[in-house]
Design brief:
homodimer, 421 residues, alpha/beta, Aldehyde Dehydrogenase, Chain A, domain 1, Aldehyde Dehydrogenase, Chain A, domain 2, 2 domains, 6-stranded parallel sheet, 4-stranded parallel sheet, 15 helices, globular, Gamma-glutamyl phosphate reductase (chains A, B), amino-acid biosynthesis (chains A, B), NADP binding (chains A, B), glutamate-5-semialdehyde dehydrogenase activity (chains A, B)
């Protein structure tokens, strides 16, 4: 496809999304929820077509030598189709974020001022193999009254188109415009380049993919982005920690799942408690098959552990590997987190009130915790009802992002003929 | 100055600001307020030095042919010095935005989750002639526990340095780092280029200047920005408006001040009420010396008014000029605002409940009003206590931006040994 054709195609999608966004912003809660439920029903009643389309993607993938892990993520089984439908029903059941007015209060001038929650407008989502993201992301945007442009990976194009068909039929049931959810149907890489620079049409981008994608967007995108970079998360075990809680949390934060961004990657432990606690922790980790790397002081206690390098303190392993450092005290722990962490999620284990509060206040991360596993940093665990991603940026949305992150607030002013004197 | 020297200088400022930001984030409310009051006192006790430095800027300005309006804005009289000091005392008296925890609630897992308000970190402010912005912006950043880098116009460099001296002495009184507030002391234009791309040190940019500055930043900045573009504000007078309120609001919104971004630039009026109301309004505007431009239907009522062109509907006059359009109804008014407006501030005058609510919900602007003058769109009028700017963006801060716009929230999680199952 010629680059000007890609451009025209994407611009057309952008314009249509913007027009649909205006209609969506006026649609009632009931209308949006009806559409969500209708899409869920379509997905289940059209499961045969979905599986056929998916089989087509899988064949192409196998022929093209797609890795087994990616092939697995690409798959649409009956169970996954039911999960998608169930996810949409759950989104429909959430409270409507749109239209809420807060803090309406009277001013000395006589006007009343408040803030109303409204959709952002048009959301662009860029993602990779999993076709279930198509339904999930469309559902979150529809619930929050945003139009959405979905750009999935080319390896899932047939599955995504089949899901998009179901979405369109669901929108029609509720008399919402079909352009409320659009799937980019060209796999040309230039389409992404267009999408991320269409700031006249798009209000926000949500990349749901690897670090490479986010880094490309950081360089090239002109549309603002809900971005997620590294999750280099820490647990600091204070010398006034309860050893049982410390062991439980430090073990869970590393081993409950290895590939998630809220998994602990470095363990910091106060030197006064290390001789008592660390040998036991090392034992637990080794039984779980976790490869350990330690600072000099750690290796003094456990000489078999290889030395951690500077790169280890910055590593997001996403694997059964853990770096361990013995620190003098809370100050040194905070200093380490500030220097090497990624401002994602960090936790202290302590019974000391003042240190707990200092950690909460002073550690500059999107989630800070006391006596809890970093694995809790998640939209569902926080009660957001849904998660569109986790933001490591400070502006707009920080930490797990739910429906609220897809909205903004405007000021409303109620007067009765008031003028400014 | 060589470009690598500019770079080194700015990088040094950035590093120092980041280090200061960490100390500020830990400083108590009392410590920050003490500094604010000490700076206010310094400004007043050093007024002679401030006026001498300012006289120096004024001489350079006069010699260089600076416009009289700019020379006036540059001036530091006793009254303006007292205003700066008073402004800082008012900021000190505001509630501390930092450290507040909201919505702390228990989750089924047993953890408690809430959100804590924290500083952004390092704020960069770029502004033009008015030296009082130096004290004002430094005060807002100090109150919100952010370090700030101030880059004022070269025409005010001596005044800004003298104010910066007062700020540094105030910081010292409260034992806060002097790098909490830094004024860029080189006037090289390349310094701005460095500042706006130092995303490793800066968390947000606040441009306080004309459209040219914001447009440059939109093109070149990699640091996120609280941006303000045009204020093309509308009043729509519905056919169910109270004519007295309509006349009062439409007159005030245009004539109370001409040069502000919340001044009405286009008046929309329903055709059913226009014959009754418009001649009276035209009369009022003409008495006030406002130049009018009208649509065809307006000119049918008042043939002496010249025709408005397409450019008039998009114009931010910032002057005693007004475009007037007669529209069929609310739908046409909303359509006009959507097409030509700048999403800043728009107001409807009506006694009709349903139309008032439709306008509030459907107009996608940072402030939407019923029966009130657009001139109320202002941080002080909204009760924010202070204003760092008005944002026309949708993400992070929208509309008048007070201290809250200089902060963010992080999640806090309180557990008691909780792990994820």
């Amino acid at each position: 496809m010629h680059s000007s054709e890609v451009r025209d195609y994407m611009q057309g999608i952008g314009r249509a999304a913007q027009a649909a966004a205006r209609i969506l912003a006026r649609a009632s809660s009931a209308q949006r929820n009806t559409a969500l439920l209708a899409v869920a029903e379509q997905l289940q009643s059209e499961r045969q077509r979905l599986k056929e389309a998916n089989e087509c993607d899988q064949e192409v993938g196998r022929a093209g030598g797609l890795e087994p892990a990616l092939l697995d993520r690409l798959g649409l089984s009956d169970a996954r189709i039911d999960d998608m439908a169930e996810g949409l029903r759950q989104i429909a059941a959430l409270p409507d974020p749109i239209g809420a007015v807060r803090d309406l209060h009277s001013r000395p001038s006589g006007i009343q001022v408040g803030r109303m929650r409204v959709p952002l407008g048009v959301v662009g989502i860029i993602y990779e193999a999993r076709p279930n993201v198509t339904a999930d992301a469309a559902g979150l945007c529809l619930k929050s009254a945003n139009a959405v442009i979905l750009r999935g990976g080319s390896e899932a194009i047939h599955s995504n188109q089949a899901i998009a068909d179901c979405i369109r039929r669901g929108l029609a049931v509720s008399e919402l415009p079909r352009e409320a959810v659009q799937v980019v149907e060209i796999t040309d890489r230039a389409a992404v380049g267009e999408l991320i620079t269409m700031d006249e049409y798009l209000d926000v981008l949500v990349p749901r993919g690897g670090k490479g994608l986010v880094e490309r967007l950081l360089r090239e995108a002109t549309v603002p982005m809900i971005k997620h970079l590294d999750g280099v998360c820490h647990v600091y075990v204070d010398d006034q920690a309860d050893p049982e809680k410390a062991a439980r949390i430090a073990y869970n934060a590393k081993t409950q799942r290895y590939g998630t961004c809220n998994t602990m990657e470095s363990l910091l432990i106060a030197e006064a408690i290390a001789p008592q606690l660390l040998p036991r922790l090392i034992d637990l980790y080794q039984q779980a098959g976790v490869e350990l790397r330690g600072c000099e002081r750690t290796r003094a206690l456990a000489p078999a552990i290889p030395a951690a390098t500077e790169a280890d303190w910055r590593a997001e392993y996403l694997a059964p590997i853990l770096a361990i450092r013995i620190v003098a005290d809370l100050d040194e722990a905070i200093e380490h987190i500030e220097r090497y962490g990624s401002h994602h999620t960090d936790s202290i284990v302590t019974e000391n009130y003042t240190r707990a509060w200092r950690f909460l206040r002073e550690v500059d991360s999107s989630s800070v915790m006391v006596n809890a596993s970093t694995r809790f940093a998640d939209g569902f665990e926080y009660g957001l009802g849904a998660e569109i991603g986790i933001s490591t940026a400070k502006l707009h949305a920080r930490g797990p992002v739910g429906l609220e992150g897809l909205t903004t607030e405007k000021y409303v002013v109620l007067g009765d003929g008031h003028i400014r004197e």
